[in-house]
Specification:
The structure is a single chain. This protein has one domain (40-262). The chain has 13 helices and no strands. 76% of the residues lie in helices and 0% in strands. The longest helix is centred in the middle third of the chain and has 33 residues, at 141-173. By secondary structure, the protein is an all-alpha fold. The mean pLDDT is 89.
Amino acid sequence: MKKFNFFETLKYIWKTRRVWWYSSLSRTRARFVRTTIGGFWLGLSNLLSIAALASIYGVVLAVDNFQSYVIYLGCGLVSWNSIATALSSAPNLFVVNSNQVLNTNTNYIFYTLEEWAFNIQDFSQSLFLVLLGLSFVQNNIFLNLISVGLLPLFNLILFLYWFPVFIAIAGIRFKDLYQLIPVIIQLVFLLSPFLYEKKTLGFLSWTADYNPLYQVVASLRDTLISGEIFFGKFLMILFFNIFGTYFSLLMLHRSKKVLPFLI
C-alpha cells in the first residue's frame, strides 16, 4: 500500500473540490425538492427550537436577563445541532455509500468530503437565519461574526470534518457505535452548558473545560456575543483540529484495504 502523504491528500481535496461540493449541493437541493421555502426550513426549525427552549428554560432557570439568555441559547444551539447531526450520521457513512465503495475506484476520502460539504451547507443556512432572527435582539451579532467570528467559525467547520470521519472509521469496525452515538450526543448536550450557563455547574465546571465538543461551540458563541476573540483558546482548538485532521486522514488511508470487507 502506498505510504500516507498528508500534503498529497490535501492536494487531492483541493483538486476535487468542485466535484464533491457540487455532489453535496445536489443532495441539498433534492432534500427540499417541492417545498416552498427549501433550505430555509433548516433555519426556521432552529429558530422555533430556540424560541420554545428559551421560553421554557428561561422560566425554569429563572434567568435575570431574558434577552441575553436568548442570544446565549441561540448561538450555542445552532452550532451544537450541526455537530450533533454530523456525528449521528457518521457511523453509517460508508454503509450508505456501499454501492459506490464496492463498485467504483473512487477515493474513499471523496465520500467524507461530500458529507462534510453537505453538513456545511446545512449549517450555513441555519446559522444565517438564526443570526438574522437574533439580530433583532442583539443588532451587532452579524458585525461580530464578520469582524472576529470567522476564526472560531473556521475551527468549528474543520471540526465538522475530522471528528465525524474518525467516528465513521470506527463505525465500520464497531457496529454498536450506530446505536451508541445518539445516546452519547444526548448525554453531552444535557450535561454541557448549552441550556444553562457554565457557572451553574459549580465545582463540576471542569467537565466543560475538558469537553472538546462544548469548547468548539463555546468558542464561536462567546465571540458572537462579546465581539472579542480569545486567541489562546482559538489556537488551542486549531492545533487540536489540525492534529485530529491528520490522524483521521491517516486512519482512513490505513483502512482502505479492509473497508470493503467491513461494510
